[in-house]
Amino acid sequence: MKTLVWVEHDNSELKDATLSVVTAAAKLGEVHLLVAGSGCSGVADQAAKIAGVGKVHLADDAAYEHALAENVAPLIADLMGHHDAVLFPATTTGKNIAPRVAALLDVMQISDILSVEGGKVFTRPIYAGNAIATVESSDAKLVITVRGTAFDKAEPAGGSAAVEAVSGPGDAGLSSFVGSEIAESERPELTSAKIIVSGGRALKDAETFEQFITPLADKLGAGIGASRAAVDAGYVPNDYQVGQTGKIVAPEVYIAIGISGAIQHLAGMKDSKTIIAINKDEDAPIFQVADIGLVADLYKAVPELTEKL
Amino acid sequence: MKILVPVKRVIDYNVKPRVKADGSGIDLQNVKMSMNPFDEIAVEEAIRIKEAGKAEEIIAVSVGPAKAQETLRTALAMGADRAILVEVEDGVDVEPLAVAKILKAIADEESPGIVMLGKQSISDDSNQTGQMLAALMGRPQGTFANTVEVEADSVTVKREIDGGLETVKLTLPAIVTTDLRLNEPRYASLPNIMKAKKKPLDTKTPADFGVDIAPRLTTTNVSEPPVRQAGEKVADVDALVAKLKAMGVA
Fold it and tell me: Which of left, alpha, beta for B120 (phi over 0: left; psi -120 to 50: alpha)?
């Protein structure tokens, strides 16, 4: 099977999310990459070095700068004339584009795969991860999004694939990019952080969240997450949210502070390697999934922990 | 301008789904069903656009069993003007691609300026229908909407993306899919629930639109996810610090 992988990037840096998708694609067959963007040849050079990649297609066009689905989907659909499967990371970019490609190809997409079981058989989570479905596709081509935390990352070095320029229909004239507000932070991104410190509703307000969670995260070099309750209450911006409707994370260590452990939150973090919970309610559901639990008042325990680490 | 709002009947979000012992799916017997939460947000947003004088009519659509009428009545009670049920047999799951084809056929008849739908259902979590519909209609898509502003011939959508927000401008007609923080849906008042019973509700079938709903994916098994065992509780912060140090953290 010949596969095409959507490379996630910002026109200068290749994003880590791509590497897990390469691993998933390699289980299906030959791996080709697509770098679509504007002034992004540097990304194509990085992509060519990923171990196990056969070829990199580079579509460099102003119309592809912001990965607008209206513009890139027809380009990918064209390339699918020579590929049997296309795989995207299950990021907001991948989730935006993939179904548009699938519909253009008249294919039923397989979302958020956790494993490749055979040629056209995959597992994927349904009901917020409360169940795992095994599905088999009957379509001639496959359109897939990949849950990054379920696959190891391919080696970003060691390969030497050829880069080949491709072109597509360009600007569809349906949509335009106006602007973006990306939180600038020295902190690791949630989806790639090795350690995450996450706070819940018990933090009371934005100032308290900052006062108790941030110093601990700083000490550990950790990313900062939050429960939906904390986000909805306005303690932190929405991109902090870990859970079914937020980010799905699987760090080495996840420290849940003042988080009760609602189903929707657990769905987003239960694949973390080690879960540590600090909560004053000893019956909180978070303790049912925690490897290490501390029943304590966070306002005492967290500053003490920060100091002693 | 008309706004088309597709809604789906799913397990209520407060209910923990149970996997059937034979691995054939999720047990839906005697389980509370409700409108998909993201679709409620879509209905609410459509109503707000209409209240702002930027739309004249809101049409709710559901592809589902006869009982999906209840979901449509909820949309009507919230403020939709009329509804279309595309009925399938109870227990038949229609995949996003087929739903998108049915919606495309309805959009061809109704010519809505905006199709506003939830970004995903909380049942199969596919997150596909809106984007597929946009592709089939050859129209732009504003997915994971956080803010929607309708202008004369365009809609500006602020989208929730990894790491922040992104704003795109789409030429109408356009497809918008809703994210969690777009709005807080209203509750239907009792008088509006009564009034909704008299609002028009048409019933169709997929065949009326010439759409084949035969699934492309076969689900061979549904199982419980691996269960995580609870670990141990430590007595105090010192014990926690010792554990963290033993793990090589800090």
Answer: beta
